[in-house]
Specification:
It contains 6 helices and no strands. By secondary structure, the chain is mostly helical. The chain has one domain: YheA-like fold (Up-down Bundle), CATH 1.20.1500. The longest helix is centred in the C-terminal third of the chain and has 25 residues.
Length: 121
């Protein structure tokens, strides 16, 4: 790799790391792992996902057992999604995802027929 390209990539990496959206996302991610109530909701949802997947391996999705777990999973996911810190993280994540799609479009867009950022909106 030539020196000019290496310097450009280092500059891009530094700009991304210093972007307020990325900084905010990183801060929120730390808070997520420090919130025991949120971690409990995540564990509950994950356990129900595994249970539902297991049930579907031997029962039809319309069976009473599968439908009961599917409902509990839906409720657990809704509870997790409505948790204030989770909502804030999701909003921050979307902003960073959009930033990365814009960067991808700038770099690779000329070589594609469609751009990622225009498809996401």
């Amino acid at each position: 790799m030539n020196i000019s390209l290496s310097k450009s990539l280092d500059g891009l990496k530094s700009a991304i790391e210093q972007d307020e959206r990325v900084i905010r996302l990183n801060e929120l991610e730390k808070k997520l792992y420090e919130d025991p109530s949120l971690l409990e909701l995540v564990k509950k949802k994950d356990d129900l996902e595994r249970e539902y997947s297991s049930i579907l391996s031997y029962k039809d999705k319309n069976s009473e057992e599968a439908m009961k777990v599917a409902k509990a999973l839906h409720e657990a996911k809704a509870e997790l999604d409505s948790y204030p810190l989770a909502k804030e993280y999701t909003e921050a994540f979307i902003k960073v995802r959009d930033l990365y799609m814009e960067i991808d479009d700038i770099i690779f867009g000329p070589y594609r027929k469609k751009t990622l950022s225009s498809e996401a909106k």
